[in-house]
Amino acid sequence: MTANAADFAGSVCGSRYEKEMETHFRDCLLFYLDGRIRFERYCYGEAACLVFSVWGSGFDADGKIRWDKEPDFESQQSALPRVLTDVQESGTALQFDGMRKRYVKTEEFTQDKANGYGPWKLFWIKHRR
User: Fold this and answer.
1) pLDDT tens profile 19-72
2) Which of 4, 51, 115, 129 is disulfide-compatible with 41, CB 3.0–4.6 A?
3) Can you spell out the DSSP letters for 68-87?
């Protein structure tokens, strides 16, 4: 499946998609206007925190996410979505690797300073288009 990561980012800065029906972790995919993808895994509970994250540079021609660096641990490697297999509900639900659990759009954000998407970077991204 051919896809462009920027198509899922929305119109302002980016969009967050969360894996549905997840009980132990909160897995999120963030899509940005420049085509970058960020995977984030959070734990639930009192000590809820970021477990790990990985950046990707978009999709290849077959819909496979091009991760910048593979995580060191097998449990983290197996958590990463690999191939976009279906786009549902006009792009608000994404299915990866043919799995039943989808990533559903939960938020469209105007900036993400923590990940380097502040007002100036967004200005340049929008004017390069």
Assistant:
1) 998 778 999 999 999 999 999 999 987 778 999 999 999 999 999 999 999 999
2) 51
3) SS--SSHHHHHHS--BEEEE
